[in-house]
């Protein structure tokens, strides 16, 4: 029967094309692992919420004993030690930092929420304790506390981000339990006195990160789509370079004593312009369909510069793929196998969990930070979504440039060795 013969032929061809077979098997497996890892399908039911604590509390003196206390430190320890019910998993990963750094982490979604404890927090706690003690011997209604004895804890975050919505709800609950426990212990300590409302002294409010009140999820996703488009340049470059090899174009060009650098750097220039055009076109489309663009013309200029850097990184990656691909079809397959998963790994479509591998100058370095497109994405979000200037993206741009140079050098060496020198 003919269909059996055809089946045997196709099976033999499939087995012979080992790289194609690997792509068929590993591509869906990789997606399964990425989605499972990102959405908590790796065997752990609960995940800690990342929060930043900014502690401005100056402390206070306890009445009677003269003891110096800092209730903000106590609250921070409570947050650090809180766990899910019937579980060993902590509710929060707590980072104690400055307000400027906390706001930066919020913008990059390195943390879900920011807790700002005011300078007079301990004074308010002491005022509450003092008022409870005084009421034991006082007659009538206790008056409202003076304004300087009332403190407000701020829970700040991106109100369009689901991670903030969940985290601020849990934070509010844990803080409420902490205040209730303090009120109960204080009132028991003064012979069961009741009637002083701790909420008159300690309050909290939820505050949106400036500029995020009208944000949607698309406002955070749009820069990721730009990075995804830039990464797709990898496929086109890898396919184009491989096709040039197959057609013998490189052999003819070498007769003019062209060097590897001339070929690859010269080809990089037009592709860099394509990357710049992608940023402008995709930004225009995003604005038309509802992207809340920030920062004016300056942010567009910065975004184009950042996009060119990301484009050069993608072109360099295309060189590496072309150095090993046997033909343009295989180059296209390898380009897809590498570029699409990379777009997920840099957080283009959803926020990945933190995987800190080092710390440099007080800045935590994640595993994903080893990829230049991670810094390109963070820089685009900082300038387009939040309207940041050069000072807000300089750190990301410097890292993107350094990593891109490394990838370009690797691509130059490998392509020259495997595609040019081998033919001499």
From TrEMBL:
Keywords: Cell membrane, Membrane, Transmembrane, Transmembrane helix, Transport
One Pfam entry name: ABC2_membrane_3
Localization annotation: Cell membrane
Gene3D superfamilies: abc type-2 transporter like domain
Gene Ontology CC: plasma membrane
Family: Belongs to the ABC-2 integral membrane protein family.
Protein name: ABC transporter
């Amino acid at each position: 029967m003919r269909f059996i013969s055809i089946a045997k032929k196709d099976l033999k061809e499939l087995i012979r094309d080992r790289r194609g077979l690997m792509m068929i098997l590993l591509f869906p497996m990789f997606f399964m692992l990425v989605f499972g890892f990102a959405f908590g399908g790796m065997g752990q039911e609960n995940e800690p919420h990342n929060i930043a604590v900014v502690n401005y509390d100056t402390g206070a003196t306890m009445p009677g004993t003269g003891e110096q206390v800092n209730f903000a430190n106590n609250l921070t320890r409570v947050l650090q030690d809180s766990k899910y019910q019937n579980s060993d998993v902590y509710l929060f990963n707590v980072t104690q930092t400055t307000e400027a750094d906390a706001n930066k982490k919020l913008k990059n979604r390195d943390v879900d929420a920011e807790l700002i404890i005011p300078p007079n927090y301990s004074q308010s706690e002491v005022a509450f304790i003092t008022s409870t003690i005084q009421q034991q011997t006082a007659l009538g209604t206790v008056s409202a506390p003076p304004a300087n004895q009332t403190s407000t804890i701020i829970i700040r975050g991106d109100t369009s981000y689901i991670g903030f919505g969940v985290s601020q709800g849990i934070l509010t609950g844990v803080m409420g339990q902490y205040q209730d426990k303090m009120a109960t212990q204080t009132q028991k300590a003064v012979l069961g006195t009741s009637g002083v409302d701790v909420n008159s002294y300690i309050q909290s409010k939820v505050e949106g990160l400036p500029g995020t009140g009208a944000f949607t999820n698309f406002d955070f996703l749009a820069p990721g789509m730009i990075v995804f488009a830039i990464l797709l340049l990898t496929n086109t470059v890898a396919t184009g370079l491989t096709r040039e090899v197959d057609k013998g174009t490189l052999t003819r060009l070498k007769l003019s004593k062209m060097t590897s650098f001339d070929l690859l750097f010269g080809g990089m220039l037009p592709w860099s312009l394509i990357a710049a055009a992608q940023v402008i076109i995709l930004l225009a489309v995003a604005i038309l369909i509802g992207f809340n663009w920030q920062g004016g013309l300056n942010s567009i200029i910065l975004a184009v510069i950042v996009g060119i850097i990301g484009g050069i990184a993608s072109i360099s990656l295309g060189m590496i793929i072309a150095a090993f691909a046997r033909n343009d079809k295989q180059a296209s397959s390898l380009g897809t196998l590498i570029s699409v998963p990379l777009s997920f790994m840099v957080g283009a479509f959803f926020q990945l969990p933190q995987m800190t591998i080092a710390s440099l100058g007080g800045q935590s370095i994640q595993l994903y930070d080893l990829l230049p497109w991670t810094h390109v994405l963070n820089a685009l979000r900082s300038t387009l979504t939040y309207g940041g200037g050069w000072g807000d993206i300089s750190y990301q741009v410097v890292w993107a440039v350094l990593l891109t140079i490394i990838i370009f050098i690797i691509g130059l060496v490998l392509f020259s060795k495997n595609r040019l020198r081998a033919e001499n």
